[in-house]
């Protein structure tokens, strides 16, 4: 039975494994990951020292306003996180579901619960165009009014 938990207290190994299995952790030569984490949301790459990679991924979830995870018994199978001011704006980041659990409504449930948690805020997110139809089902619309400033890591 699939259950959902609201917590940012996650196991680093399970979190890293989830990101690795959905293909978001890659090396520059596309070999098994050791040096970088790929932010699939905006298709930008975050280069991280190999010794710090688990901490950077873990800390990004630990420091988020809201983290919702999906579980099959004790196995982490899906996740989403939200950064928000809880009043006007919210951003969904890192929606991920293990490939063997995709197309079962888990991603849909994760997004629905994120939207329900902060119902009065305006939500935004970044994703590749192939994912537009999925998010449009929740009322998201493509916007050209988006700017971003790259950081040291992106």
From TrEMBL:
InterPro entries: Acyl_CoA_acyltransferase, GNAT_dom, NSI-like. CDD domains: NAT_SF (cd04301). Keywords: Acyltransferase, Transferase. GO terms for molecular function: N-acetyltransferase activity. Residues 25-154 form the N-acetyltransferase domain. One of its GO terms (cellular component) is cytoplasm. The keyword Acyltransferase applies. PROSITE patterns: GNAT (PS51186). The keyword Protease does not apply. Pfam families: Acetyltransf_10. This is GCN5-related N-acetyltransferase.
